[in-house]
Amino acid sequence: VEAWSDNKRRKFSNDFKFGVSTSAYQVEGAWNVDGKGESIWDRYFHDNPNVITDGRNGDEACDSYHKYKRDVEMLRELGVDYYRFSISWPRVLPSGFPNEQNKLGFQYYDNLIDELLKYNIMPMVTLYHFDLPQKLQDLGGWANPHSVDWFVDYVRVVFDRYASKVKHWITINQPNSICTSAYGETAMTPDLNKGITEYQCTKNILLAHAMAYRLYQKEYKNKYKGSVGISMSLNWADPVDNSTENVEATEVFRGFNIDLFLNPIWSKNGDFPSIVKKIVAEKSKQQGFSKSRLPVLSPEEIELLRGSADFLGVNHYTTDLVKASAKYIHSPSFENDVGVEIVLDEKRNQSQPSWLRSAPYGLYKLCIYINQNYDYPTIYITENGWSTKTGLWDRSRVENMRLYLNALLLAIEDGTTVKGYTVWSLMDNVEWQAGTSERFGLYEVDFDSRYKKRTARMSALVYKRIIQSRIVEKDWEPRNLYISSQ
Ligand code: GBH
């Protein structure tokens, strides 16, 4: 599939929604202000400043804690239908538990949500975007089965306060990144029982999600009629060539990175996918474990998980090329269980980080794969974006966005139920270990300025025009970057 390869003028329907996304740690700053508790990212970056590319952590970030009115003004400038942001658990419950409720922390989210509603912008709230209270990490974090309870207790407090105002909820951002790659950071520190904690986390975090979903169904849904979903990191993966071993390696890779997290919730029979169960069981045995490192889901847990989402949040950035890996490593780890190598396609346009290359066809293929395997679930694209260096004329971001939106239009034309599209990100922010060396924003942020000045990039104006017209033009460019908030 190719964008603009035919002369059809495709259009997003009038009820299709456009939004932008951020997350608490990455934009709020005010890390210890007004009684906020410490998160695992505060601790990790304060203890290890040298892991951050440019040394800039989230202590100040975009200072959205104080600049939320400017943030909402930008949303109005763009004309978005919704704003996806996350609530910082340690900001509102500093101990991790509801015994201590931080009034001023809640006040911030009251203000932000009210400001959004004042201008008719729907809040889409992520309940957890990587920033666990450090005090819960000290108890083992997501590897502790009690984390299911901790999360549900937190979520209940938030639902009680905001269910009347917020209709779109995302329980957890990218459980697959949290459990199996660096975003759970301190939970998954190298050498801390690798190959074991990844799967304990997977089980616990999925159950935490499902319990939060059921809680909403039982106690809030009738009254407030909102919907609750979960966002997964879902890049596409293709084999590097058509050799049998690489095709098979790709199936395994998809099993671990896509189906391990989708199958329990969206498949007809639920449970972890059989290909993953089989591989982890076999390798565990070879390694001398008495049972599989992948925990079993009981029949009750399978039922709890099955169907526990009103929509699938798709965070999609790129397509990986997969090659079978010849090397055998005895030590247990998630990577070893997957056992493949990712190769980069040098021909594709590359953004700042090496993992991010433009491959819009992959979004189309991913949608078709999800439809075929999980029977056409309702989807929101909850993240899609591109990173650049600083600079306002961000043509590569514009081009990437247009190509991905075109791929999405084709996926919709071929039957995918997509309700909304969300750009990552509204503005430049703290890109975890990459600090502010990678810029994903439609708005540039001057992190050295006292007011963390935000300025629209070309992509902001192009996105605004797409939202207004609902079509994706091939080459429209603004003449200047002035954007009026009227
Ligand atoms: C998103 O994850 C996050 O949800 C968001 O917070 C973040 O700002 C955004 O990415 C942009 O980075 O450095 O080679 O080890 C997207 C999925 C999975 C992409 C982990 C980066 C690390 C690759 N991410 N991956 S590497």
UniProtKB/TrEMBL annotation:
Keyword set includes Signal: yes
Keyword Membrane: no
EC numbers on record: 3.2.1.21, 3.2.1.46
One Gene Ontology term of the molecular function aspect: galactosylceramidase activity
BP GO annotations: carbohydrate catabolic process
Catalytic activity field: beta-D-galactosyl-(1<->1)-sphing-4-enine + H2O = sphing-4-enine + D-galactose; beta-D-glucosyl-(1<->1)-sphing-4-enine + H2O = sphing-4-enine + D-glucose; Hydrolysis of terminal, non-reducing beta-D-glucosyl residues with release of beta-D-glucose; a beta-D-xylosyl-(1<->1')-N-acylsphing-4-enine + cholesterol = cholesteryl 3-beta-D-xyloside + an N-acylsphing-4-enine
Alphabetical list of Gene3D superfamilies matching this protein: Glycosidases
InterPro entries: GH (IPR017853), GH_1_N_CS (IPR033132), Glyco_hydro_1 (IPR001360)
Keywords: Glycosidase, Hydrolase, Signal
Top-rank taxon: Eukaryota
Family that this chain belongs to: Belongs to the glycosyl hydrolase 1 family. Klotho subfamily.
PANTHER family for this protein: GLYCOSYL HYDROLASE (PTHR10353), LP05116P (PTHR10353:SF36)
Name by which UniProt lists this protein: Cytosolic beta-glucosidase
Source organism of this protein record: Parnassius mnemosyne (clouded apollo)
Organism lineage string: Eukaryota, Metazoa, Ecdysozoa, Arthropoda, Hexapoda
